[in-house]
Specification:
alpha+beta, YbaK protein, five-stranded mixed beta sheet
Length: 180
Amino acid sequence: MDAFDDHRPAVECLDLLTAPVADALRAWRGPVPVEQVLYVDTDPDKADTAVLVEHYGSWLVEQSANCVVVAGKRGGEVTLAACVVLSHTRVDVNGAVRRRLGARKASFAPMDTALGETGMEFGGVTPLGLPAGWPVLVDAAVADTPYVLIGSGRRRGKLILPGKALAALPGAELLEGLGI
């Protein structure tokens, strides 16, 4: 992560994060010490993966992860879930996600729903600090990555943390083949 001039423990930067993400870091539990969750300041205009990789280097393709919110529908019920995959893959919404949620139909959640429910900004959604009870589906390849770069809850800034830390988040489930 040497490409980033300024990285420091995210718990030292709580004021730069959205409230849900800061709260999640304050309440951190799990096998990875919270000090291993790092914050890097990045230009909000470079929040999208393709632009980020172009600016900071192609090595990020293998070490970046995306978190997207999906909606599974069955009858009149909608289940929201977060899916975390490496950035060079895409979420298998109609296969792995639909089956895991037991949904008749699954799709990406509308942006206003995703942002309103998470309290995060477009381009910065992260699996840290999601609403209680949400499934957090993590592709096994993410958990196997030594360190991943992921959103911080805002467009400005990213988090760097061990992939195994994402697999240990509240509500997290490893799902083989989530990223295709």
